[in-house]
Amino acid sequence: MTLKIAFLAGRAPVAQTARADLIEMYGDVPPEAADVIVALGGDGFMLRTLHATKNLPAPVYGMNRGTIGFLMNEYSDVDLKTRLSEAEEEVINPLSMTAKDQSGQIHHALAINEVSLLRAGPQAAKLRITVDGRLRLSELVCDGALLATPAGSTAYNYSAHGPILPIGSDVLALTAIAAFRPRRWRGALLPKTAQVRFDVLEPDKRPVMADADSISIMDIDWVEIRSDSAIEHRILFDPGHGLEERLISEQFT
């Protein structure tokens, strides 16, 4: 059986050149007809590819032709079909975000890495945090806060001093960004089944934006976030270089 591959690439010339070379060597089919989708770029392009192909049956195998490649495999055009047949699969669930802005409009978005709330003005944000309907923090004064999946825990979450979460741990990281009060509050680990709600306090004076994998919503009143187990993103990695190994290795660098 011939392996049918769809090659997708980011805008960078190096990614476009790699796509042209690979198509010449291995052929190309539309993503809807592919057995495997190969994404050429960085992590940002990989996230966009995963979002765009979430309803397709083919898994996604990324090769790094960008600046960041935590979700990507090393680029090589040699014996690609063997690499694809031997690749190991990781399945991750995205976060589902529902947000209401100050005009009353409701927004929906999915996030593979994290949903973040960020101050959108000169003053710190004030957030109230509720988990599964129970008030957990009546007021967090901060530059922002985020809820990250294990797959996204080494991204913005890690830069904000949040924990790295092993794949399969069934937990989410709730992390404060430059918390001012409570000053020493670093966040919390929550079960994957938790539903988290952020209410923006003083939204007119202290505007806040929400961001789900670069989908931004301005001037929000509240945001609700939960893990969506109905959506499964299938990602392929070279043997010994899967997400679990990368998450462990990242903690020793």
TrEMBL record:
Catalytic activity: NAD(+) + ATP = ADP + NADP(+) + H(+)
Region forming the signal peptide: none
Organism per entry: Antarcticimicrobium sediminis
Active site, renumbered: D43
Gene3D superfamilies: Probable inorganic polyphosphate/atp-NAD kinase, domain 1, Probable inorganic polyphosphate/atp-NAD kinase, domain 2
Compartment list: Cytoplasm
Family matches, as HAMAP family: NAD_kinase (MF_00361)
GO process terms (BP): NAD+ metabolic process; NADP+ biosynthetic process
The family this protein is said to belong to: Belongs to the NAD kinase family.
Annotated NAD(+) binding sites: D43, G44, R48, N113, E114, D143, A151, T154, A155, Y156, N157, Y158, S159, A178
The keyword Membrane appears for this protein: no
Entry superkingdom: Bacteria
Chain's gene name: nadK
Classification lineage: Bacteria, Pseudomonadati, Pseudomonadota, Alphaproteobacteria, Rhodobacterales
Function noted in UniProt: Involved in the regulation of the intracellular balance of NAD and NADP, and is a key enzyme in the biosynthesis of NADP. Catalyzes specifically the phosphorylation on 2'-hydroxyl of the adenosine moiety of NAD to yield NADP.
InterPro entries per the UniProt record, alphabetical: ATP-NAD_kinase_N, ATP-NAD_kinase_PpnK-typ_C, NAD/diacylglycerol_kinase_sf, NADK
GO cellular component: cytoplasm
Name of the featured protein: NAD kinase
EC number: 2.7.1.23
Pfam families reported in the protein's UniProt record: NAD_kinase, NAD_kinase_C
A molecular function GO annotation: ATP binding
Co-factor requirement: a divalent metal cation
Keywords noted in UniProt: ATP-binding, Cytoplasm, Kinase, NAD, NADP, Nucleotide-binding, Transferase
NCBIfam families, per the entry: PRK04761.1
Major enzyme class: transferase
